[in-house]
What we know:
Layout lengths: L1 E3 H7 L9 H11 L2 E6 L6 E13 L7 E8 L2 E7 L11 E10 L9 E3 L2 E3 L2 E2 L22 E2 L19 E5 L10 H12 L18 H4 L1 E3 L8 E8 L8 H9 L7 H13 L3 E5 L7 E6 L5 E3 L5 E3 L5 E5 L2 E5 L3 E2 L12 E7 L2 H11 L4 H8 L6 H16 L2 E2 L4 E4 L6 E6 H8 L5 H11 L2 E5 L3 E6 L9 H12 L20 H15 L3 E2 L5 E2 L1 H4 L23 E2 L4 H12 L6 E11 L7 E11 L16 H14 L6 E5 L6 E11 L2 E9 L1 H7 L4 E7 H6 L16 E10 L4 H11 L4 E10 L8 E10 L8 H19 L2 E2 L1
Helix pairs in contact: 3-11, 5-6, 6-9, 7-8, 19-20
Main location: cytoplasm
Keywords: Aminoacyl-tRNA synthetase, ATP-binding, Cytoplasm, Ligase, Magnesium, Metal-binding, Nucleotide-binding, Protein biosynthesis, RNA-binding, tRNA-binding
InterPro entries: aa-tRNA-synth_II/BPL/LPL, B3/B4_tRNA-bd, DNA-bd_dom_put_sf, Fdx_antiC-bd, Fdx_antiC-bd_sf, NA-bd_OB-fold, Phe-tRNA-ligase_IIc_bsu, Phe-tRNA-ligase_IIc_bsu_bact
Amino acid sequence: MKVSYQWLNEYLPLEKNQIEPSALAEKLALTSVDINEVYSPSDGLSNIVVGQIESVTPHPDSDHLNLCQVKISEGAVVQIVCGAPNVSQAAGKKVIVALAGAKLKDGTKIKRGKIRGEESNGMLCALQEIGFSDKIAPKAYEEGIWFLPDDAKVGDAVFGYLGMDDTIIDTDLTPNRGDMLSMYGNVNDLSAIYDLPNNFVSHDVKENGTQKAADMLKITIPDPQIAPAYKARVIKNVKLGESPMWLQIRLWNAGIRPINNVVDVTNYILLKYGQPMHSYDYDRLPAHELSVRHAHEGEKFVTLDEAEQTLQKEDIVVTSNDEPVCLAGTMGGLNTAVSDQTQNVVLEAAIFDSVMVRKQARRLDLHSESSMRFERGINPETVETALNEAAYWLQQLAGGEVEQGIVTGSEKPVESTPITMSVNKVNAVLGTELKLEQIENIFDRLKFAYTQSGDDALVVNVPARRWDISIAADLNEEIARLYGYENIPSTLPTMTRTLGGLNPRQKFLKATRQSLQSMGLNQAISYSLMNEKQAQQFTIDPAVTPMQLDYPMSSDHTTARESIISGLLVDVAYNTARQVEDIALYEQGRVFIPKGGERPEEQEHVAGAMAGSLLADSWHLEKRPVDFYQIKGIVERYLHNMAIAGTIEYVADSTRKEMHPGRTANILLNGKLIGFVGQIHPQFAKDLKIPATYVFELNLEALMAAEKLPKQYLHISKYPAVTRDIALLVDEDVTNEEVVDLIYQKGGQYLKDVHLFDVYTGAKLPAGKKSLAYTLTYQADDTTLTEDQVNDAFARVEKHLQDVLNAEIR
Length: 810
């Protein structure tokens, strides 16, 4: 809420006690609510004064510009060229003048100059040009300059006449402190914080009408649960017009646009008491009766913004003759809105079910100052007070005749909440040594009635205006914040001493990140929520229906992800669109797999995505685009680094529609699927506008549960290694994995490594054949190998390959 310091000062002696706005804001932040900003509307502005237009003549060389002779001080008149549409009728009006050298809100500096040959010594300003946003500038002056009151003194700084010399404290409330969404709540709280006299003033109405309101309007509330309080007054013969300047200043300093005196009064009461109000045109109601009910499923209703809303059965509507005339607590209807022709008004003050108001405002995207307050709670103590004061101001500002009595449909009892508390318990919780008298003083400042119960206990009656307090712990918080958190002694907590450190799961996840980063991948963090289509793509196991949110933030974040790759591809597309060619990303995070229960199973996964080149181009190394074998190598090295025991297999897979059918492999651990690696399908990549991209994803839950190889020191042999090369002619369907497995089967104890260094297929070979060439490395740890030992082992390998694969040794 934007809280006016000057308005606060009318009810509390802040200036008298030398409490500056900045100190006040700091105290609020330490004691009650967070502070977004403290500012003055005049910040950044200079040399802007009140001027009076003496005469207006058309510009001789323009059909839309005018030459204005403007008095800027006693005896000083300057010429200013102005193109505002309403300046032609402005002779004699007081206006906002930015003199030569003035600085505007957007940083523009006004200079003397000539416009189409005519001298111009300044600028006549609209409100927007001195910092007012389009949302709060009155519509009547939307396309023209602003006219100041006739009593504005020429030559004075303009800020005081527009409320721009005020200081605004923009507070950020937690949901439990809905009482602070009003001047009434802020005054009560600050009065208690500073122990200042509370001079808050309410105005009671003197009914000057001749009819009984109950004879003119009937209200029935069939279900008081959805409208615990509903009251109305009837005001006749109102005269719509512009609100006085003091009221407009109150509104626009709070971020609300002034509209007319009737609507402005309801908004003023909303700011003052936190009580949302609505005004109906009495003569446009379908019948002179009001009720509140749930909407019918699919019922149509046109709101004040001229949009047709399709309602659901959970929504709440105010009806007249069973026709909706207002979305309760959210927005009024167009057909019964106050207009220039309105003469008779029905004023409504109510309390509606906060949960239902929140849901309908969120679903229909109709958030407003009113709905925000209904969602957080309304003070039942001031419903009637606010209604009476609104009627008072319509009487004063619109000449209305307030008819006799209030029409009540339902009324929420005003009840205090009795809470028993112990002084010893307060001190034990807060770590203080407060006396009973000190605690009583705090409750006196808060205006909480209490009675003593024994030497140690108090029974505190919390007023209804503080609906956030219901248990003794809440009172402890009130005592702590008014006593001052800074006054509570600092002590170290008493606890058993335990050594800090990471558990095995945390160590594994940390090692995962370190391993992938060491291989050149950069960590990315993407949203866990995405649209339904993205959420079901790239799943390790066959996709199931994903978990959807009941109330998503947006249409792009409706569904919990089942794979991390979709989010990484969004990151790849983002970088590609910004001319980043070489991309190597990984993400470790949770996916959400529905298993049939109320909540999905959360699994820890890791995924990577690569495009372009992993290694930069250099003088001795040409740039090489990433391929399947490079990303497969990263996965193999990662699994090796994590010491995963068991048999790891890479099995070709063509069933994943998002993946390239010839360049994708499932990853199996002891025969169980734990992930996959491969290239994104070219058509899929084209749709995403990304280059050829390779990805992998692994289920870390399966890896963490797998057996690990023991980590032990292995010394490097000091004896020389011996190599032998072998070239085989085999069938084209024979895989490298088969050949390597067969070599190791008969290679003997001294075979240390098998390396494929050549693959050849071509016209010089028989049809259906290919040539594979390997280097076999032999080495002993305790002796130098002899030629016979190596030759015997190598011969066994050759024979085994010939027998099993029918290989031809070349």
